[in-house]
Amino acid sequence: MTFDCPRKWQDSPSAIHALLFDLDGTLVDSAPDLAGAANEMRLSRGLAALPLETLRPLVGTGARGMLEVALQMTPAHSDYEASRSEFLDRYEARMARETQLFDQVLELLSGLRLAGIPWGIVTNKAERFALPLTRELGLDEAAFAVIGGDTTAHAKPHPAPLLEAAKRGGIDPQRCVYIGDDERDIIAGRAAGMGTVAAGWGYLGNGKPIEAWNADIILSSPSGILKLLGLA
């Protein structure tokens, strides 16, 4: 199920009634804590910590990507499930230690509030982590929905989580824009019939270049969203 947003919403920003954001790499920089959990595992095994910049691009791939880089361990390894559980437990214990909002995100969310534009969060992070982290960072009260990777039967790039968020907000999906830093965010947004923005300030992964994701727009900073909507 894929189709284009039915209008050039960029040329008519007043047609947008809500924004939906990915979490990691879009609203928050969680790389230090995800990388920290991976490096804790390395240190416990007598290995040296890896530089943050080595681990940072793989943040969007979650535990699988972290374990592959940190321990050269794939799901085929006999100890993978135990190591994955260890990683998640270590991350849960420190997930708000160094994680913070990206620069300009507070200003962006304040601008949306003043303009009366509702916004929500759709992440592939399990609710076990997404709900307490958004509470810790003060995002949960302002967001009309926080949808995790296990809130619906499917995670992104399936459109189900985005459609669930729109449903909870009582908003027509075709009047939403989804903003994320991974190609699967753009795939999910297009499949849901939403406008799409690629967050060029995020992690971006090691796959296709951002220009090949087929997003409606690529922005280099969160402040660009306010400009796009005519609010700055």
TrEMBL record:
Keywords: Carbohydrate metabolism, Hydrolase, Magnesium, Metal-binding. Mg(2+) binds at residues 22, 24, 181. Its cofactor is Mg(2+). It comes from the Bacteria. The keyword Lipid metabolism does not apply. It is an enzyme of class 3 (hydrolase). It catalyses: 2-phosphoglycolate + H2O = glycolate + phosphate. HAMAP family: GPH_hydrolase_bact (MF_00495). Belongs to the HAD-like hydrolase superfamily. CbbY/CbbZ/Gph/YieH family. Specifically catalyzes the dephosphorylation of 2-phosphoglycolate. Is involved in the dissimilation of the intracellular 2-phosphoglycolate formed during the DNA repair of 3'-phosphoglycolate ends, a major class of DNA lesions induced by oxidative stress. This is Phosphoglycolate phosphatase. It comes from Roseateles oligotrophus.
